[in-house]
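Thread: Modeling a multi-component assembly for a lab meeting

Hi all, long-time lurker, first post. My supervisor asked me to bring a structural picture of a complex we are working on to next week's group meeting, and I have zero experience with this. I have the sequence lines for every component (857 residues in total). Could someone generate the structure of the whole assembly? Inputs are pasted exactly as I received them:
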Amino acid sequence: MGLSRRGVLVAGGAAVLSVAARGRFGRAAAAPAPVFAVPSATEVDWVEHVLGRCTFGVAPGDRERLLALAPRTEDATDRWIDQQLAPGPDDAPELTRRLGRLTSLGQPAGELYEWKPEVLLRELSSAAVLRAAGSRWQLREVMVDVWSDHFNIDASKGECAWLKPADDREVIRRHALGRFRDLLAASALSPAMLWYLDGRANRRASDAERPNENYARELLELHTLGVDGGYSQADVMEVARCLTGWTVRDRHRFGKARVEFEPALHDDGEKRVLGRRIGPGGGPADLEALLDLVAAHHSTARHVATRLCRRFIADVPPARAIDVVAAAFQASAGDISTTLRALFRNAEFRSPAVRRAKLKRPFHAVASALRSTGARTDGGAPLLELLRSMGQTPFQYPTPEGPPDVAGSWTGTMLWRWRLALALSRGELAGTSVDVAELTAGAGGLDGLAAHLLGRRPDAKERRALSAGSGPLAVLLASPGFQRC
Amino acid sequence: MGAIALGNLHDDRVLVTVFLRGGADGLALVPPVGDDGYHEARPRLGVSRSGALRLDGVFGLAPELAELHPWFLSGRLAVVHAVGLDEETRSHFVAQELVERGGPTASGGWIGRWLRARGGGGALGAVAAGTEVPDSLRGAPGATALGSLLDLAPGQEWSALCASVGALYARDAQLSTAARDALAAAGRLDSLRSAGVQPEHGARYPSRTDGALAHTFGEQLARVAWLIRRRVGLLAACVDLEGWDSHFAQETVVGPRMRALALGLSAFATDLGPQLAKVSVVVMSEFGRRVAENTSLGTDHGRGGVMLVLGGGTPGGMHCRWPGLTAGQLDGPGDLPVVHDYRDVLAAVLARHGAVPPSAVFPEHASQPLPV
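Re: Modeling a multi-component assembly
Sure thing. I ran the full set together rather than chain by chain. Output:
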């Protein structure tokens, strides 16, 4: 990897820190602001494309920190991706400080029951916004978003409100860049998932009992093989049998949130899943055998590759890219970082045609507005309220397939994106502020600000619009160019 | 206003829910004055046989709801009694959540599920008339609180921003339609803000002299009616009328709220004119109240309550398999049992609002829609 500690620090946001520090002491207008690099081409260049897709928005200074990693641009983006795929233990001090105030985040699963569900949900949602806007490990945050969708849990169901914080920490975040098989196993036995998809109620103590197929179906349809992945209803029923007996203690019992295997509730007969035999008497080992089978299935590789290509390349992912990414997933036994490297090297990802053509979803739109303006924010209620209005409240998407990642589902949110643009630029969001003068000066003036936010120099029409009475920052944040990554 | 293509110009049916929060006493709204058990249980709070406005041989409408009686008589108001949740909870919080969700384990709100299954909601497809989006709208794309939308960022800067972004989006292949929708919605909200709401067909919403509660409720309904008439693409609207938790001195709690409800709803129905045939108003609460009055002239949390369906093509009428209020018929601590599931009322209404099967909205309930 060849990454020095100093490299991490430089890459991580020393420049952002200095910008923030000046803002805090209120001498922005007077101080000679260092000009951060902005793109100079009329089309979106390779660096802006990499930053646009692998982050929640290009922060002031991101571009020059990336370019400083190597003399050749290609090498610099490679180095940057390498760094991002191996996050260090530290993060931006401002973020660490903010997260430190959200005291529920670090609580063990059982302890979370001491908290009010609405407090847990609020802190977890704020943390998601803060991390997306402020973490120096942006690609990890993007992948956390991807996996939170893939293994969607609606925290408002059953006891999920108490359990989702632990799922976020110990399933999604822990394995976001690791191995898919580990992520899958962690999810399968996550207390929140056992609640959300009724796995806890899946039992067969006698022949008369019918297993609960909810999780088994979604495991195949959403988490692994995909709906056309080549499984049958019989497979769903056999998968459900494999998983009988795994349950979680509810809040009325001692040892709440403890996941257990109850042999008496397990169907220990022989099963046949996807044409493979799982022998009788396996007990809890049925789960491992099953996960080995589905994680290694070629349909799973394609299903995951499709999701990744949709997120990183285009709403309708090119078939050739899916082939390549699926092959990398399969060859690396589901190593997520290796799979992503293959994706970023792929010609379809590099094509100029896909650059800034992907509509940001509401969460991405909000995070990128904060991030690219260098906003100071507490990730608080006004932002969450906007997300709610746009239909993407974190961790509250009601159905297991998670929020869609295609433009058509989100084009009805324009009004709120514009509201955000105006409110943010005018300092009308409580708990969030932007130093517009400093940002503009740092970008080298209005044209620079436009280039920073659009990923390219503004065209004549955009330049004209900047003189509108609402102020240039609001226009840029509300413009179509900023809605895409 | 020009003919701008919006979400539902060709399908302008709108669902309006009015949630009576706090557990509205169905026996006060629609007293079963023909049931002797009622007069025994409510010696001080009860309405006399002649005091109620006749609905059928058993039921009458509370005198405070007088303005609703003509709508019943003309067949545009349906009344359902002994209706509610199939769960035994008597907690406001739990019951409201269950009702708004449409079942114990279903995810999201029932209106949210309906809108997603239905598809086609635009920038103002679903609104809450107050400042908060209720749980029933959870999962609805673009659900928003009208109150906060009107309060946020008004003024010249907003108009200037709309004008300049409008030009930028005009040639955007992917977003121009959405932007045009949003601009049209913003323009209508702007005129709602500046010109104020002008009721039609001689409708008179409650004024300040009718009390703050009635005034606010009327104002919210007037905004919804205005949005419906301006065809902004509205598919669903939620209005709350709070404070029905009448444990103590019930008449002072429930009386003014019934007045607010009657004055507001009748003005709303008048305001819409012939369009009422395409607008379904459903009035509901989380539960009804104990049959017997308590010693502080109030009533405690119960089970079965009342739902109303106004307009939208309802055949109207009184609907109830009345169990009677004799002791043996009562539930738990002395409550009107739930004879009809609230979802069977909602499913009947939704059936007139598009081709979404009830199972997509209420996956846990085998709906048997009532003829309302």
